[in-house]
């Protein structure tokens, strides 16, 4: 059974940092790219960042480029999203994604 479990969300302050984790199981983790998406209230889910299976290639949405860093530890079947210089508009539920599988999401709230 494929499982993606996000953690690390919470309340942050503008200008501050949070680090999200996505623990994966049920598939050959180091064969696949993993992505982070987010969905703010009343908005569609949007892609935030993606990392290739070997971590050699990363992609960032323009809204987070230079502030967020995606990384992975294939030995721990875990993908991370380091979020720095947080902005109130980063407030959303953040989801881990692989193929058509999704985690349950973790809430990030940024206060101004």
Explain what this protein looks like in three dimensions.
By secondary structure, the chain is mainly beta. The protein has no helices and eleven strands. The chain has strands at 3-7, 10-13, 18-25, 34-39, 46-51, 58-60, 68-73, 78-83, 92-98, 101-102, 106-111. The strands form two sheets. Strands 2, 4, 5, 6, 9, 10 and 11 form a seven-stranded mixed sheet that branches. Strands 1-3-8-7 form a four-stranded antiparallel sheet, with no helix packed on it. The radius of gyration is 13 Å and the shape is globular. The chain starts with a strand and ends with a strand. The model has no long low-confidence stretch (mean pLDDT 96).
Question: How is the topology of this model organized?
Answer:
Elements: E1 3-7, E2 10-13, E3 18-25, E4 34-39, E5 46-51, E6 58-60, E7 68-73, E8 78-83, E9 92-98, E10 101-102, E11 106-111
Parallel strand pairs: 2-11
Antiparallel strand pairs: 1-3, 3-8, 4-5, 4-9, 5-6, 7-8, 9-10, 9-11
Q: Which structural traits does this protein have?
A:
112 residues, mainly beta, seven-stranded mixed beta sheet, four-stranded antiparallel beta sheet
Q: What is the overall silhouette?
A: globular
- Main beta sheet, described? 7 strands, mixed
Helix content: under 10%
In angstroms, what separates the terminal alpha carbons?
40 Å
Tell me the number of helical segments per DSSP (H or I, 4 or more residues long): 0
Supply the helix-strand structural class.
mainly beta
How much is the average pLDDT? Answer: 96
Beta-strand share of residues: over 45%
Order of helices and strands: EEEEEEEEEEE
Identify low-pLDDT runs.
none
The oligomeric state is single chain
Rg for CA atoms: 13 Å
Counting DSSP E segments of at least 2 residues, the number of strands comes to 11
């Amino acid at each position: 059974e494929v499982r993606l479990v996000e953690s690390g969300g919470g309340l942050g302050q503008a200008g501050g940092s949070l680090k999200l984790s996505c623990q994966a199981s049920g598939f050959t983790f180091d064969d696949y790219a993993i992505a982070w998406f987010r969905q703010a209230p009343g908005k569609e889910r949007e892609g935030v960042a993606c990392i290739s299976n070997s971590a050699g290639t990363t992609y960032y949405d323009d809204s987070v480029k230079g502030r967020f860093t995606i990384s992975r530890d294939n030995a721990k079947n875990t993908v991370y999203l380091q979020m720095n210089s947080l902005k109130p508009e980063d407030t959303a539920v953040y989801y881990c994604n692989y193929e058509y599988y999704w985690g349950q999401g973790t809430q990030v709230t940024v206060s101004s």
